[in-house]
Amino acid sequence: MGQYAFGVQLSKKLKDNMKKLLIIITLLITTISASAESKLETIKKNGELRVGTTGDWDPMSMKDPATNTYKGFDIDVMKELAKDLGVKVKFVPAEWKTIVAGITADRYDISTSVTKTPKRAEVAGFTETYFKYGTVPLVLKKNLKKFPTWDSLNNNKVKIATTLGTSQEEKAKEFFPKSKLRSIEAPARDYQEVLAGRADGNITSSLEANKLVIKYPQLAIVPDGGKNPAFLAMMVPKGDKIWNEYVSNWIKRKQTSGFFMTLEAKYNLKSL
């Protein structure tokens, strides 16, 4: 009788443990399923596309502090993407030094365009590219005779400014190994150091440089050509294949329809 009671008690204990195990497995499956949900589903469910953008890259993304609104090539792209998704768009302020972290920390679903780099690709996904640009140095126009080439800026007496967190920050180390490099933290910008005389030059994208020399006539592009052609794309969470493929296919369709060509004309841009 004692053995029988013990057996019944053991059987009941095993059943209880099995129930607990099943509950744990169910919770794990639910958690994994939730975490595996694509951004595409979440965006449609919430009715909102969250876009990370720096608002300091003319003509791609510029923030008007007076109205707290954004304008630019990428801003138009994101508004069109949200419209086609049937959701509203929300622009989330970001900085170059943390723009990748914003994707990994789920502060936004996608970023406006950034340069594709191996370092960023380690932790973030990249969509299909939609713009190609060159990299050029800027100096004061009055110093063009002193700095007529890239090589003339590669000198231990020369100061080169870059903006912290940008792809140009890494490129400066490659192009100007002899120069004194200085990283400037946003909201300050590298070209402002050149204008103020605290740096001899800076490097930036050809698309931004073309806008800066119009806005600041005292600046000039070093004339011996662009280097290191780079590709722009949007960043999305790494591993979210569904969301990445959706946006990439959307980009391809918009390229075919002439949408990007129209935008380039609007902002007086030309992809390489």
Produce the secondary structure layout.
Elements: H1 2-36, H2 39-46, E1 48-53, E2 56-57, E3 61-64, E4 69-71, H3 73-85, E5 88-93, H4 99-104, E6 110-111, E7 114-115, H5 118-121, E8 124-126, E9 131-140, H6 150-153, E10 159-163, H7 167-175, E11 180-184, H8 190-195, E12 201-205, H9 206-215, E13 219-221, E14 227-233, E15 235-237, H10 241-257, H11 259-266
Parallel strand pairs: 1-5, 1-6, 10-11, 10-12
Antiparallel strand pairs: 2-3, 3-4, 7-14, 8-15, 9-12, 9-13, 9-14
Task: Give a verbal description of the structure.
The chain is an alpha/beta fold and 272 residues long. The protein folds into three domains: 1-36; 39-127 and 234-266, D-Maltodextrin-Binding Protein, domain 2; 133-230, Periplasmic binding protein-like II (D-Maltodextrin-Binding Protein, domain 2, 3-Layer(aba) Sandwich). The protein contains eleven helices and 15 strands. The chain has helices at residues 2-36, 39-46, 73-85, 99-104, 118-121, 150-153, 167-175, 190-195, 206-215, 241-257, 259-266, and strands spanning 48-53, 56-57, 61-64, 69-71, 88-93, 110-111, 114-115, 124-126, 131-140, 159-163, 180-184, 201-205, 219-221, 227-233, 235-237. The longest helix is centred in the N-terminal third of the chain and has 35 residues, at 2-36.
User: How would the global form be characterised?
Assistant: elongated
Annotated CATH architecture of the largest domain: 3-Layer(aba) Sandwich
Compute the separation of the termini in Å.
Answer: 89 Å
Which percent range describes the beta-strand content? 15-25%
Characterize the largest beta sheet: strand count, sense, and whether it forms a barrel. Answer: 7 strands, mixed
| Radius of gyration over all CA atoms, rounded | 26 Å
Determine and state the CATH class of the largest domain. Alpha Beta
Helix tally equals 11
CATH homologous superfamily of the largest domain - what is it? Periplasmic binding protein-like II
* Secondary-structure element series: HHEEEEHEHEEHEEHEHEHEHEEEHH
- Structural class estimated from helices and strands: alpha/beta
CATH fold descriptor of the largest domain: D-Maltodextrin-Binding Protein, domain 2
What is the share of helical residues? 40-55%
